[in-house]
Design brief:
Length: 259
């Protein structure tokens, strides 16, 4: 009897040790990406998350402000185990991110079905300075990031990397993975990605349009090219005041100039 009890305790300790070990990158030929050195399974219950989310959404209305929502509604709490720790997420719906009548479309103007109520923000229960952003999928999976004072963790559904490929059979082993920003290999930045190039082109286009509008105004309005007394021709616009002056001093100077 004593030997049987000893074997049982040994077996339980062995299972606990296995559960704490990091997942080998090559197990079952699963490789998330050539740029991710290490990752681990993220353990949590998606069904419990879906039940909690339904309760939370029944208690909210779209016309609440975010501050009122955080004061009156119990947050969505998710405990995710991975990377030798437990992420105790405390989440609130992002009610102010989109307008109530927002419409999502693809690049070819097709309607895209997306529920803005699945977007959340929050923090960690044991680290109030941490920032959590993400969304919940239809399957109740968390897809987002956790930013702490030391690093950033990414928590993502496994299907993002395995769906449709020859390695997709491994997706049944674990539904979500977690990895640290420190384990991401950054490729050499030879050129910007498509979205970054599109943003830059948009900025250049807006700048050229502003220049043309200014030139047209000066050509069509008599005296527009002449300097106006008391008004600077060129004025540098900044988002913050000069560091050597306080806001109160700047306000007083502005009032004196107007008087």
């Amino acid at each position: 009897m004593a030997n049987l009890l000893f074997l049982l305790i040994y077996f339980v300790n062995f299972l606990q040790l296995l559960s704490s070990l990091p997942l080998p990158l090559q197990e079952h030929d699963v490789v998330l990406s050539e740029f991710i050195r290490h990752y681990e399974p993220a353990i949590y219950d998606p069904d419990a998350i879906q039940r909690s989310q339904r309760r939370l959404r029944r208690a909210t209305t779209t016309d609440w402000s975010l501050q009122r929502l955080e004061r009156q509604v119990e947050p969505l709490r998710i405990n995710i185990t991975g990377m030798q720790r437990v992420f105790k997420l405390v989440l609130y719906p992002e009610t102010n991110l989109f307008a109530p009548d927002v419409v999502f479309e693809t690049n070819d103007n097709r309607s895209l079905q997306f529920d803005p109520g699945k977007i959340y923000h929050g923090t960690l229960e044991d680290d109030p300075s941490a920032l959590v952003h993400g969304l919940l999928t239809e399957a109740g999976l968390f897809d987002g990031s956790v930013t702490t004072s030391t690093t950033r963790f990414y928590i993502e559904p496994t299907t993002r990397y395995l769906s449709g490929g020859p390695r997709s059979t491994a997706s049944s082993m674990y539904h979500t993975v977690v990895y640290s920003e420190d384990d991401v290999i950054k490729p050499p930045a030879r050129r910007a990605c498509a979205s970054e190039e599109l943003r830059r082109k948009g900025e250049i286009r807006d700048l050229r349009r502003n220049v043309r509008d200014t030139q047209d105004f000066r050509r069509n309005v008599p005296g527009a090219d002449k300097p106006v007394r008391g008004v600077r021709r060129k004025q540098k616009v900044t988002t913050t005041p000069a560091p050597e002056k306080s806001y109160e001093e700047l306000i007083r100077e502005e009032q004196m100039r107007r008087d």
